[in-house]
Structure of Primosomal protein N' 3' DNA-binding domain-containing protein:
Amino acid sequence: MIARVLPNVSGLDKTFDFEVPADWTLALGDLVRIELHGRRVGGWVVGLDPDDAHVGELKPLAKRTGCGPSAEIIELAEWAAIRWAGRRRHFLHAGSPRRAVVALGSPRRSGATISPHSPATERVLNEGGGVVRLPPTSDPLPVIASAARLGPTVVIVASVETASVLAGRLRHGGLTVAQVPDEWAAAASGVDVVIGGRLAAWSPCRDLAAIVVLDEHDEALRDESSPTWHARDVAIERGRRQGVPVAVVSPCPTVDVLEWRSPVVPPPEREGRAWPVVEVVDRTGEEPWKRSLMTSALIAELRDSERTVVCVSNTTGRARVLACRSCRDLTRCEVCDAAVGLDDDDTLRCGRCGAQRPAVCQACGGTRFANLRPGVTRLREEIEAAAGRPAVLVTAKGPQCPPVAGVYVGTEAALHRVPAASTVAFLDIDREILAPRYRAGEQAMALIVRAARLVGPGYRGGKILLQTFVPDHDVIRAAAAADPGVMVGPDRERRQMLGLPPFGAYAEVSGAGSEEFVASLSGDVRIGGSEGRYLIRCDDWMTLGQVLRDGVRPSGSRLRVAVDPPR
C-alpha cells in the first residue's frame, strides 16, 4: 500500500508518496513520521492507494504517531486552503490532537436530554440550519440542549472560559462532553457534545448530527494570524458537506451570515426585556473639540455610590474625527458614512472606502475644521474628581482588576477584565462607529453587546450610556431600540453599493516582497494601494483565494496575506 503524506513543514504544501509497511494498520488522516531530505519530520496521511506496483521504489514510513483528522476534515482543509489562501498544513494542525492518540476508545453516549430547550433553535435545525438572534443576556444553554437532542453536536464559542462554563453545566445536566482541544480523543471516540473555541470548528465528532456557533459576531472566532479563517464560515461549509444543520446564534448577527439565512427573531417585548437600559447622551449642542468627556448624565452615574461604573474610552488606532468649526457638524464620508481625515493638500479622504472630496463642510459650507482629540492623558483623574471616589485604571496588560471598586476607567479591555458592573459608559462611541473599517458598525455593536452582558438586563438595574455627536447613527438607534436589526439594512446597502463582503471579496497583502507578489497575480482581481500595502479585490472568495495561492512569492520575502482582514 502507498501512503500520500503532507509533511508538517512550514512553507511546504506538497505531498510525497511512501510505502506502508506490510504489518501496519493505517487510516486516512493518521499522523506519521517520515524521512524527508535527510531529516525525520511529522506529517498527515492525506491519501491511501492499495496499488503496490511501485512500492519497492519508495521509502517506507518511519513511524505511525497516532490518530489524526478524519477524511471529512482533510477535504474541508483543502477547501479552506483556497478560501483563505493558506497552506493545508495550517488547517490540518487545527484539526489534530495536541498529544499523540494511539487508538480511540468506545463511544460514551448518555442518551440524556436536558431542559429547557429553545423552540427557535429547534425550528432552525429542523429546517436545515439558520440564524437565531438571541438577546445578549439570554442563557445559551437551551440552544445547545435543543441541538443535542438531534445527536452528537459540535458547539463553537468565542472563548475558552465560556466553553469551560458551558461544558460544566452540560455535564451537570447528564450529558457527556469533550472540551477541545484538550479532550480531542474523547471527541473522536464519541460523546454527546464537543465544545471549544474557534478550533472546535475542526474538531472530530463521531456521528455528527448538528453544529452550533455561539456569538457569531465575536471577532475571537476569526484567527488574527494568516490565514485569517473564520470559525463561522468553516462550520457552515462543514455542515453543508456533511449534511448536518448548523445553527448560528448571536445577539447581533453580521451582514455576512444574514446573507446566508434570514434570522429567527424573538418577540420585541422579550428581546427588549433582555437588554439593559440604553441612554443616548446627545452631545450635538456642545463644542465638539471640547476636551472634557464629562456630561451631566455621566457625572450622575459616577456620583451614585451604589452603582459600579465602567468608563470605556478607546483611542489607540481609532478614527481621527473632524468637526466643522462653524456649525460643529462631524465630518463624515458621503458614500459610506465613516469618519474622514484631512490630507496635507486640503482634501477630505475616507479611510474606509477611499472616497475624496474638497475640504468643505456639507452642512454649512465652512472650510475650517477641528481635529477632535479625546484628551485621555488625565482621564482617570478627571473621572475620579467628578465621582468623588477612587477610579481604577484598567488596561489589557495591566495588573488584575480589584474585585471591589466603584469606578473603572480603561479601553475595551475593561469589558473583559472587570468582574461586574451596574453601568457601562462609552465616553466617545463615535470613534468606534465612524472608524475607517467597513465592519465598524458591527464591531461597535459587539462592544455594546459585551457591555450589556456585563451590566445585565434593565429590570435588574443594568444601564449603558452612549455619549455621541451622531445620535441618528444606525448603531446608536439600534442599541437604543434594543433591536440590532435596525442597523442591518443601511449597512447592507452600503456594502452592496461598494462591493464589500459579502457582495465581493478582498484581501490585504503587506510586507517585504509584496510589490513583486502583487505584480504576479492574474487579471481576475483588481489591485489598489501602494508602498508595501495592497488591497486585492475580486467578485468571490474562491477565485480570490486561488489567485493569491497561484501568486509567485519572491525568494526571502516576508509576506502577510490576510483574506478579509478583521481590522
Summary: The chain has four domains: 2-95, 119-269, 275-319+373-490, 504-563.
